[in-house]
Write a structure and sequence with these properties.
With about 140 residues, this protein is of the alpha+beta class. It contains two helices and six strands; from the N terminus they run E-E-E-E-H-H-E-E.
């Protein structure tokens, strides 16, 4: 069986829907085409998710990201479309897509887009630094 690019994002049930937790995904080898020149554009994508009822299946995400390889699109459009497609598939509590586009003509471009589920409020951050204990020193 041959693996092919696909726009289909598969999901599975969140194994811990009772709590907020953070999933961080890195896609270091994203490629699409510049819509003006047809030359390849390269980026690293970071995807941060606080899931609700569903999580994204990673092979389908890989094939989804691969599907852009021969498509022409501006950085802003690609980043927003990826966010929209993930939100549609997952209905997450929170989702952030950060695209770090590699240098082109001397310019780096970073595009950050976010989605927050209506009414979702993150739990307060727990600061564990207060529990750091200095190692005893030998006198």
């Amino acid at each position: 069986m041959t693996t092919k690019p696909s726009k289909s994002l598969q999901t599975f049930p969140n194994p811990a829907p009772q709590r907020d937790y953070h999933i961080h995904l890195q896609v270091p080898e994203f490629t699409c085409l510049c819509p003006l020149t047809g030359q390849p554009d390269f980026a690293r994508f970071d995807i941060d998710i606080v899931p609700d009822k569903k999580c994204v299946e990673l092979k389908s995400l890989k094939l989804y990201m691969w599907s852009y390889r021969n498509e022409g699109a501006f950085h802003e459009k690609v980043t927003n479309t990826i966010l929209d497609d993930l939100v549609k598939a997952l209905s997450p509590r929170f989702l952030r897509v950060t695209a770090r586009w590699y240098v082109r003509g001397g310019i780096y471009t970073h595009v950050v887009v976010e989605h927050r589920k209506r009414g979702w409020k993150p739990a307060p951050r727990v600061d564990l630094a207060q529990f750091d204990v200095a190692e005893p020193t030998a006198d």
